[in-house]
Each structure stands twice: as structure tokens, then as C-alpha cells.
Amino acid sequence: MKGCVEVFDSVYSDLSPDTNIQLSTIYTNFTNNDVLEVEVVPGQHQSGSVDCGLFAIAWAYELANGHRPEHVMLEQSKMRSHLLACFQKQKINRFPVAN
Asked: Is the pTM of this model over 0.85?
């Protein structure tokens, strides 16, 4: 299987050299002539620097349910309490989206 690795990042728009090396190492069996195609998908950027894990979980949920994260605008101020409620219910639901 050959293809492109998509990166969803709520903080940065470019990949660091270290991240490129890590991706090349992880996906070494999926390269085409030792070249790994990587696309940083433009999407929502978070406010502040502490909610990247929340975005990672929310976007993983979107992908697992057939939605493209770059088409979703999340309500960042509600994400932390939403995830806590999901943990308490032992079920992950879709994160709050902006209208």
C-alpha cells in the first residue's frame, strides 16, 4: 500500500525535521522509492498551548466516524468538560462543534 500520510495539527502548520524523521521511520514500509509523501492538512488552530490532546482525540473521533476534521469547527471552551463527561460515561461522543 503506497500513499500519503496526513497530519492533523492544531498548533503548527509545518512539520519539524524531527517529526519528518519520525514519520519516515514509522512508515518506512509504505514509502515509494524511499520517499514518504506527507500532507499537513489545514484545519482549526487551538487557542493556547494545552489543548492539543483534546484536539487529537476529537479529530480521531471524527476520522473514525467518517468525517474530515478540517471541515469541523470545534468549541474549544467546551472540549475539556465534554471529555470528562465521556470518561465518566465510559463512552466517547462527538465533541461540541460551533454553529
From this structure: yes
